[in-house]
Amino acid sequence: MAKKDPKNLSVEDKLKHLYQLQTTLSAIDEKRALRGELPLEVRDLEDEIAGLNTRIDKIRYEIDDFQHAISQRKGDIERAKASLERYNQQLDQVANNREYDMLTKEIEFQTLEIELCKKKMEEAQTRIQERKNSLANTEEILEDRYRALEEKRAELDEIMQETREEENDLKEKAAEIETKIEPGLLRSFKRIRKGARNGLGIVYVQRDACGGCFNKIPPQRQLDIKMHKKIIVCEYCGRILIDPELAGVKLQETEEKPKKRRTTRKKKEDEAE
Length: 273
Known about the structure:
mainly alpha, 2 domains, 273 residues, 4-stranded mixed sheet, Helix Hairpins
């Protein structure tokens, strides 16, 4: 049997399919709600861990850089000491004051160079210790975040295993229902649903009001909804409206309030006396 074109369906059938789709999508939303904020928490932890690893790499690079600088300074000191030894030897062999003054200045310069290198080495050692402390603290935080991530993933996986099969079945059902709805109407429904806070794109009338925003619906408009002659939307929230009977929903009858007994004229006269 050939599949009926969704455009040729009656308004009643279109509304039925839309409500079936809404019910199915709401069931999917409920399954996803069971996960709560876990997926976001997992992503946040993954991002934080990536940031911590980047920070650790940077700290280690800085430590290596300072250690390399210390090695260079050690080399500079050794060269300066060699120069000092040579200049001191030459000092005993100077022939005039000019040579003496020149060698004296060189000795003074090399001595200052050694002191400066030692100072720079001390500063670098201090920086290295600071970086090592920061590295240890960051690695401790990272270890804690890895533990938290493992716990969150295990919790999420457990929920996913419990709901995955049901959710996949619901997705297949929703996809099948969508083929029965004309594209334009389906796009409108999805747009309404996306803009709705509770994810409801089609709602039934209850207590003479819209089931989405609960604003009152005029009697004539309620009659039009019951007639199923055209797609009607709430003038306040824009949701598609459906007759509860067509949606297969049984509404509880509102209990009649007991009528207030009128006081008889005779009783009023007795009370007056």
